[in-house]
Design a protein that fits this description.
The structure holds two protein chains of two kinds.
Chain A lengths: L1 E7 H15 L3 E5 L3 H4 L2 H6 L4 E3 L4 H13 L3 E7 H7 L1 H9 L6 E5 L17 H6 L5 E3 L4 H13 L4 E4 L4 E4 L13 E3 L5 E5 L3 H14 L4 E5 L2 E3 L3 H10 L3 E8 L4 H12 L5 E5 L9 H7 L4 H9 L1
Parallel strand pairs in A: 2-3, 2-4, 4-5, 5-7, 6-7, 10-11, 10-13, 13-14
Antiparallel strand pairs in A: 1-8, 6-12, 9-11
Helix pairs in contact in A: 1-8, 4-6, 9-13, 10-11
Chain B lengths: L4 H25 L4 H18 L14 E4 L5 H10 L40 H14 L6 E6 L6 H12 L5 E7 L2 E2 L2 E2 H4 L6 H7 L3 E6 L3 H13 L5 E6 L22 H15 L1
Parallel strand pairs in B: 1-2, 2-3, 3-7, 6-7
Antiparallel strand pairs in B: 4-5
Classes of the chains: A alpha/beta, B alpha/beta.
Chain lengths: 309, 279
């Protein structure tokens, strides 16, 4: 991990999308007046004919994307996570997932790390909403390299998919030739004292915690679950067998997110205790991203404390 | 193309057959939405038998015209007309709304040959139709997209978001049809939400070319759709004055028949009436 090489996953998303534009002519991008923020604007600049600014109408945007997909297009519909999955939930459900259409739902500005905009814009329920929909795939990338791999994967594979990106910058975790596999988590380290299951912006926090704990002789592993649905059951069970303590950490409500998804696997296949770190069923507030991560106990220090307890 | 009296007679025959199918579907299912189905069956017949570029033998043709039934609860009408047109055997209609049937309560594009989009949650179909019309333009395929919405349905805000989109992208290959029977579940549209009206001025101000038509008059419908095709540079809307329950006397203009099935005696009366109309 390179702490000095930082980039927001929304930025990586926008760059990857624009690159895809020249490789695949069927890719079209829709946004709802937030192209500058979601970074779909990078695509818009290069391919204005295949970019549709729908204005501030997310419900219309998602259903329009559905129509485009029935005619062979591969639409990426972009907005803040709170709008693309929340405001347009019924459109995602009935016009995308029910007919199992090839629509890519993109939610930037997910989680409490949105920061200063406050609770109305800090989407903490999107994983829950999207994970609960039949046919939907849920991606939650942790860094630049991974985000780009996911965007390419989304263009290659058919069906409804959701990608959750963040406003705040996060450090580069993987080098360019890191290999990923759809539905397979990445295990970093093989410590046996604890497993920290992490996703999105919390993965780098977990890695920072891992490094500090090692200095004290506590050996943990970090498991990056960048695909939350389908979830890597095999990896979860393996870690439950191999490590003494299981912790999940996410910038999302502890109800219905990564922790819940892991708990479901454990309950079904290999009963074990899991400590779920995340936003404890409440709304966020204004502040800086790092201040909020600290206050709501999803940063490095909170993870270290949890491992030691 | 010149339309002959014989053509009109043929269309009326198909529409009457479709009406009988609707009544039978709903009767055998013991549930469904006959009122709103009967009000759009003439429109669907004109589209599928006279206007649209479709072929049951090539149902996945990329260049075919599309239709989105945004008021998906009128599925019985769409199924009846698609079966009448040869997309699937009419025998299949007997399974409407039953366990394991391809004919779900609301249209499922993955199950029914000829259905271009799943629908049911009101207000979404026009956006979907816009997407299809945009794709047609992007690929210069030239196909047309028709979208049928209910007059109660347009109380959904998304319809007006979509109207702005149709007009922003100058979708002259899009034709919206408003099934204006003035009835919704809770009563008359003029009572539930009077401010739905005036329709003409609303659509005009949203940038549409507006056509007004008797939604049960085959001649008028055909000449209107011909004019729609000549409209360039902006989307069209056809405000079709219709009668909910049209063709079954005791169902006509009676909101009770929005969402219920006829009992055996009522079924017989309805079928007898339609038989006589067909003669």
């Amino acid at each position: 991990m390179d702490l000095n090489d930082k980039k927001a996953t929304r930025e990586s998303f926008g760059e990857a999308l624009a690159k895809l534009g020249s490789e695949n002519k069927n890719i079209v991008v829709l946004d709802a007046d937030l192209a500058g923020a979601t970074k779909s604007g990078i695509f818009a600049k290069e391919f204005p004919d295949r970019f549709f600014d729908m204005g501030i109408s997310e419900q219309d945007m998602i259903a329009t994307a559905a129509g485009l997909s029935t005619c062979g297009k591969i639409p990426f519909a972009c907005s803040f996570a709170v709008f693309s999955t929340g405001r347009a939930y019924d459109q995602v459900r009935n016009s995308v997932c029910y007919p199992n259409l090839n629509v890519k739902i993109c939610g930037s500005h997910a989680g409490i790390t949105v920061g200063e905009d406050g609770g109305t814009h800090q989407m903490l329920e999107d994983i829950n909403l999207m994970r609960g929909l039949p046919n939907m795939v849920v991606f939650s990338p942790s860094d630049d390299v991974q985000t780009k791999w996911i965007v390419n994967e989304m263009a290659k594979t058919k069906g409804p998919q959701y990608i959750r990106t963040c406003r705040a910058k996060s450090p580069k975790i993987y080098d360019e030739n890191q290999e990923f596999e759809f539905g397979k988590a990445v295990q970093i380290g093989d410590g046996k004292d604890a497993t920290i299951f992490a996703t999105g912006i919390c993965t780098s926090e977990a890695l920072k915690a891992k490094e500090e704990l090692e200095k004290e002789g506590i050996n943990v592993r970090v498991v990056d679950l960048f695909t939350i649905k389908p979830i890597d059951e095999e990896m979860i069970i393996k870690c439950a067998k191999e490590t003494k303590k299981l912790i999940s950490v996410e910038d999302h409500n502890i109800i219905g997110g990564l922790g819940s998804a892991i708990a479901e696997v454990l309950t079904d296949k290999y009963p074990a205790n899991l400590i779920r770190m995340g936003i404890k069923d409440m709304f966020g507030e204004s502040g800086k991203a790092d201040e909020l991560m600290k206050k709501y106990n999803i940063d490095k220090d909170a993870i270290i404390k949890c491992v030691k307890e | 193309m010149k339309i002959t009296d014989e053509d009109i007679k043929e269309l009326k025959k198909h529409a009457n057959e479709a009406r009988k199918s609707i009544i039978q579907e709903v009767y055998l299912a013991g549930s469904g939405h006959p009122g709103g189905a009967l009000s759009i069956v003439d429109i669907l017949t004109v589209l599928y038998f006279n206007q649209m570029n479709i072929d049951p033998e090539k149902k996945d043709d990329l260049n075919r015209d599309r239709l989105v039934l945004s008021k998906g609860h009128a599925s019985a009408a769409l199924y009846a007309v698609l079966a009448e047109r040869g997309f699937f055997p009419k025998e299949e209609l007997k399974s409407f709304r039953k366990l394991g049937s391809i004919l779900q309560g609301h249209p499922d594009m993955k199950k029914v040959p000829g259905v271009d989009m799943s629908s049911g949650s009101l207000g979404q179909g026009l956006s979907v139709a816009n997407g299809m019309a945009l794709a047609s333009k992007l690929d210069s395929r030239g196909y047309k997209v028709y979208c049928i919405v209910g007059d109660g349905e347009i109380e959904e805000g998304q319809i007006w978001e979509a109207c702005m989109t149709s007009s922003k992208f100058n979708l002259d290959n899009l034709c919206v049809i408003v099934d204006n029977n003035n009835l919704q579940i809770d009563g008359k549209v003029t009572e539930v939400k009077k401010s739905v009206y005036p329709l003409k001025e609303k659509f005009e101000s949203f940038g549409f070319e507006v056509f007004e038509v008797d939604g049960h008059n085959m001649d008028e419908l055909i000449s209107t759709f011909q004019k729609v095709r000549q409209t360039k540079g902006k989307p069209s809307v056809v405000l079709a004055k219709t009668i909910k329950g049209k063709g079954v006397k005791f169902m006509e203009n009676n909101v009770e028949w929005h969402g219920k099935a006829p009992k055996e005696e009522e079924y017989k009366i309805a079928m007898k009436g339609l038989e006589e109309m067909g003669d």
